[in-house]
Amino acid sequence: MNASSITDRGRSVFDLEYIRLESIEQRTILFRSNAWREAQDHIRRLRENPRSFLGLIDSDISRESWEKTFWEELSITCATDLRTFTHALGVAHILHWMWTGHGETAAYLAQTLGDQREDVSPGVLFAAALLHDIGKRLIIDVVHDKRTKREWALLANKTSGDELFAEEFIRPVEEGGLPDPALDIYLHAIGDPINIVPIEQAFPETALATLSRRGIPSSLTFREVIELHEAGTGLLLEAYPDMGQVAEIAAWHHPSRTKTIDSERYPIATSALRIAVMQCLYLADTFEALMSGFRTYKGRFDLCDALGIIVQETERHAIDPALTRAFVTDQLHHDRSANRPINLLVAGCSH
Question: Which portions of the chain are predicted below pLDDT 50?
Answer without folding.
Answer: 1-6, 256-270, 337-351
